[in-house]
């Protein structure tokens, strides 16, 4: 029948007449499915206004959030990875690094900087998950080690923001050495009496959890963050049992004594300032020297 037959083949709409919503205009919360405009989502620091789900953000977002007027000086911005093992998987490691640099505009999976936060000096190292899963290779370890040295030399508190899948397999043993190196640097920082706060965000796993992320004077986390060493699937297969509900969430880890508290990203800057105000190194604007305080206690 003629009326049933499509006379023109297909439906063709010229490109200029197509009406599409541009990508990235709306944000849908994966937890409660609430839809917000991207601008509103950004204004709320990428936290869902309805259920407080914390969306993953980059080092740049934390720098914006924490440093006063978004002003900071970046440390070792040009440090780049070598290819010590000449590692090849689906592509050669240097090619993978170059491609990731192009796609992300980053040089590696951590950025380190210093500046003022709520009127107090602060050194921050923040990881970027989009750079090879936030994996810890020698550049990540070296940048963190140098940031810790900077904090120690300037007697400035150090904040580490972890977001990582663990060690970088393309650097194998070199990655594992970063665990020892960063831990040793943190021991020196502790010896010097300079505070270290570790913020664990979603996800913090593997060698990062097993080294610097759990060595803070305070270990704190964002709500709902996955925190663990091995992933839940690996553990389930190993022990052959179902895992408890909420296993490896920040809330679960807090309940089992591995965290000091959980902090909403929107309150992070103030909570951190309060905490560091209490932990300020003894020689930084202390009302009286430590010895004098001790002797006054004795004579009471
Ligand atoms: Zn939500």
Automatic annotation (TrEMBL):
Cofactor(s) essential for the protein: Zn(2+)
C4-type ZnF: 29-51
Signal sequence segment: none
Cofactor annotation comment: Binds 1 zinc ion per subunit.
Catalysed transformations (reactions): N(6)-carboxybiotinyl-L-lysyl-[protein] + acetyl-CoA = N(6)-biotinyl-L-lysyl-[protein] + malonyl-CoA
Class in the EC hierarchy, top level: transferase
Pfam families, sorted: Carboxyl_trans (PF01039)
Residue numbers binding Zn(2+): 29, 32, 48, 51
Pathway assigned to this chain's UniProt record: Lipid metabolism; malonyl-CoA biosynthesis; malonyl-CoA from acetyl-CoA: step 1/1
Domain (CoA carboxyltransferase N-terminal) ranges: 25-294
Function field: Component of the acetyl coenzyme A carboxylase (ACC) complex. Biotin carboxylase (BC) catalyzes the carboxylation of biotin on its carrier protein (BCCP) and then the CO(2) group is transferred by the transcarboxylase to acetyl-CoA to form malonyl-CoA.
Protein name: Acetyl-coenzyme A carboxylase carboxyl transferase subunit beta
UniProt gene name: accD
């Amino acid at each position: 029948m003629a009326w049933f037959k499509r006379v023109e083949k297909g439906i063709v709409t010229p490109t200029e007449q197509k009406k599409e919503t541009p990508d990235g205009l709306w944000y849908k919360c994966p937890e409660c499915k609430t839809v917000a405009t991207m601008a509103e989502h950004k204004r709320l620091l990428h936290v869902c206004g309805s259920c407080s789900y914390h969306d993953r953000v980059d080092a740049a977002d934390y720098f914006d959030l924490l440093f006063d007027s978004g002003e900071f000086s970046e440390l070792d911005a040009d440090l780049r990875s070598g290819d010590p093992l000449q590692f090849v998987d689906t592509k050669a490691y240097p090619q993978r690094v170059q491609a990731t640099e192009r796609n992300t505009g980053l040089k590696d999976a951590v950025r380190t900087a210093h500046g003022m936060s709520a009127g107090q000096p602060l050194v921050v190292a923040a990881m970027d998950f989009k750079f090879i899963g936030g994996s810890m290779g020698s550049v990540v370890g070296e940048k963190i080690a140098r940031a810790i040295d900077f904090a120690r030399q300037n007697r400035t508190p150090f904040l580490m923001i972890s977001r990582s899948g663990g060690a970088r397999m393309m650097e194998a043993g070199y990655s594992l050495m970063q665990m020892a190196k960063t831990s040793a640097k943190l021991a020196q920082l502790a010896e010097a009496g300079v505070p270290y706060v570790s913020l664990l965000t979603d996800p913090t796993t593997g060698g990062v959890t097993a080294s610097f992320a759990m060595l803070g004077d305070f270990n704190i986390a964002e709500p709902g963050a996955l925190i663990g060493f091995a992933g839940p699937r690996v553990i389930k297969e190993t022990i052959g049992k179902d895992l408890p509900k909420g296993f490896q969430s920040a809330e679960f880890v807090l309940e089992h004594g591995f965290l000091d508290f959980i902090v909403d990203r929107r309150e992070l800057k103030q909570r951190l300032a309060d905490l560091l105000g209490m932990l300020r190194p003894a020689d930084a604007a202390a009302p009286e020297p430590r010895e004098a305080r001790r002797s006054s206690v004795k004579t009471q």
